[in-house]
Design goal:
Blueprint lengths: L14 H29 L2 E5 L5 E5 H14 L3 H11 L21 H14 L1
Antiparallel strand pairs: 1-2
Helix pairs in contact: 2-3
Length: 124
């Protein structure tokens, strides 16, 4: 049997750990910015696509993605159909609605607190 390491929070949040986290955040931001720039530049490059009827069509990489999405949607792929619908403005972007009714612990009766804890334990 192999031993698995359990992640434990060693120590408290200190100035040093904050600086380390900030440094990692800056590195990730630079990396993500480079990737976005790369995708934008590559998306504008021209390529030649062979269409289903055999004709050649010049387009960009971004255009090729849209053509590919249409091909998949025509073949019955639901995710591609939704993607095209969102691009056309026919479908709204998915949203998540979160509602919560929370009482402050000082406002709870002992019975309400026990029910709350029991509900939390079910979810864990």
């Amino acid at each position: 049997m192999s031993e698995t390491k359990k992640h434990t929070n060693k120590g408290q949040f200190t100035k040093e750990t904050a600086k380390e986290a900030q440094k990692k955040s800056r590195v990730a931001a630079v990396r993500n910015r480079k990737w976005r720039e790369y995708v934008k530049a590559l998306g504008k490059l021209e390529i030649t696509l062979t269409m289903p009827d055999g004709s050649k069509q010049k387009t960009t990489w971004d255009g090729a993605i849209v053509v590919s999405a249409y091909r998949l949607a025509i073949a019955g792929d639901d995710k591609s159909r939704k993607f095209i619908g969102m691009l056309n403005g026919q479908l709204e972007e998915p949203t998540v609605k979160v509602e919560a009714k929370v009482k402050h612990e000082a406002e709870m009766t002992p019975k309400e607190a026990a029910e709350f804890i029991a509900e939390l334990e079910k979810r864990i």
